[in-house]
Amino acid sequence: xxxxxxxxxxxxxxSLPGPHGSGDFGASAYHFVDWLASAGQxxxxxxxxxxxxxxxxxxxxxxxxxxxxxxxxxxxLHAHGWLDAADLLPxxxxxxxxxxxxxxxxxxxxxxxxxSSRFLADKQHYHDEFEAFCAAEQAWLDDYALFMALAxxxxxxxxxxxxxxxxxxxxKALMKAAVDLADEIxxxxxxxxxxxxxxxxxxxYANERGxxxxxxxxxxxxxQSAEVWSRQDLFELGDDNxxxxxxxxxxxxxxxxxxxxxxxxxxxxxxxxxxxxxxxKRIRMTIELVDIVRIDHFRGFAGYWExxxxxxxxxxxxxxxxxxEKLFNAIQGALGTLPIIAEDLGxxxxxxxxxxxxxxxxxxxxxxxxxGGDTDNPYLPHNYRNNTVVYGGTHDNDTAxxxxxxxxxxxxxxxxxxxxxxxxxxxxxLIHAASESVADISIHSFQDVLGLGxxxxxxxxxxxxxEWRFSWEQVGPAHAERLYEITALHGRCAADRLRF
Length: 500
Fold this sequence. Notes:
CATH architecture: Alpha-Beta Barrel
Largest sheet: 8 strands, parallel
Number of helices: 18
Strand order of the largest sheet: 9-6-3-2-1-12-11-10
CATH class: Alpha Beta
Order of helices and strands: EHEHHHHHHHEHEEHHEEEHEHEEHHHEHH
Structural class: alpha/beta
Number of strands: 12
């Protein structure tokens, strides 16, 4: 699917300013939408909206469908009377420019529990809306809420270590748990209701101002998740409920030993026998929440790296065939042609290219990868095709400044010659190069717009990432004005404000 020529900003909501330890769907999110519009941007790209997993990664969520509770705007709960003003006093140890996830989780979850108890005690206001949400989302919400209640009960042990009746989903054991944990289940449902009502309001606000949301859907999900527990037959698990093989990638640009992600792999034959119904449901719900879906690790649908679960690294894995066009034929047959961006980075083999071309899906180009080879490097702008999304760097890359400062001398020299620069504003040089390219979509990280060197993630490193936040004091009128001018001159937004 082709997209109109446009551009946008990559920024996850957790990176927004705010008084409660991390960014959320509150006032700063609306202010950021206004900033995007003032800068001529038409897209806001975010990371997955699901709950965070090990290492605080949004790519290891406890559900393929549920939202991240840390993104719920507490001020909104106060406005509804479910929190008092005193409940909103920030913790003294909150940091303005990084998220302390341990502290934020403790602070926010305590207030969500308080808000839930007050809401559930009041049987008059919003209960019809809440019950309608629970009924509409029952297909995934019931399993999720029960899973979370049980996980809390068992102190977040892996579900495979729960009591056998619960681990194997014996009907009587599940029914008893649903009764015993009814209050806890209702709490998790309340939190998801808050998440979805706030997110839908924010997305509507963005869409009204001409901003589309590019969401992010991980190809794999975490073992400790409601979906793996509730549909064990769809995943490669052994008799002990543990994964027999896991996901990752072989040695690459980021790691000499590869990346051992640890996600359970799909039992694709079972998915095919069911007409890929689970995937259709997942894609349908994702596209209801965002305007465009970026599918992470798209090459895994053509072929994926299978690692024996006992292996400590990703070195001794093997390539296995993915579902390929059968999966996307099923999705297209059920849902029609969808606005999808394929993250086709890594080892791109002919079968990956064939899959992209068959379904006319735009792939990705990363400018930071462009200067390590010769002039035929596919990441150099003169080698792009139109149906492409170009980035200076993604959340997995360093910032433009960090990349340039640490790059080999030959790479720096090549970049300077190609970009016609002395490198002093390499962040703006990459933004300009991406914007003037023929790629239909150009996405810039907000760190690069602000000229900051704070990296969001380093693949293969479990701790210390996903924490970056900015403050509004770092954002001046010149940032939006300069980005608007670049965007307008390159035909990615209306040029009515340009001065000649």
